Amino acid sequence: MIVTTAHIFQKSMKKYFKQIKDQFEELVITSPIGDFVIMDKKRYDTLKETEYIFSNSVIITSIQNSLKQIKKGETKKVSSSQELFNKLEI
């Protein structure tokens, strides 16, 4: 995580944007009115997707049931993603 002040960020925006993208890190900007976070859009999308998954009880229950099946050895071997999609009827 990179931390800077709003004043320094304003002077070096391009440098900070490149650093965020290249290092896949967040930038925390501190200012008198509050602190803010800037991150790469791809990272933001990943966080939002994770938040959605963990807030959806149907998905969580499905994951838990799948883990139970794995522990019991109730799995099926597939040799390709297409075969998996066919078995899942996707």
Detailed description of the structure:
Belongs to the phD/YefM antitoxin family. InterPro entries: YefM-like_sf. With 90 residues, this protein is of the alpha+beta class. The chain has helices at residues 6-11, 13-23, 41-55, 57-71, 81-88; strands spanning 2-5, 27-31, 34-38. Strands 1-2-3 form a 3-stranded mixed beta sheet. It is elongated, with a radius of gyration of 21 Å. The model has no long low-confidence stretch (mean pLDDT 91).
The CATH class label of the domain at 2-42 is Alpha Beta
CATH-level-2 architecture of the domain at 2-42: 3-Layer(aba) Sandwich
Along the chain, the helix and strand elements come as EHHEEHHH
CATH fold annotation of the domain at 2-42: YefM-like fold
- The oligomerization state is single chain
N- and C-termini, Cα separation: 39 Å
Task: State mean pLDDT (0 to 100 scale).
Answer: 91
Protein name: Prevent-host-death protein
Organism: Flammeovirga aprica JL-4
InterPro entries: YefM-like_sf
Family: Belongs to the phD/YefM antitoxin family.
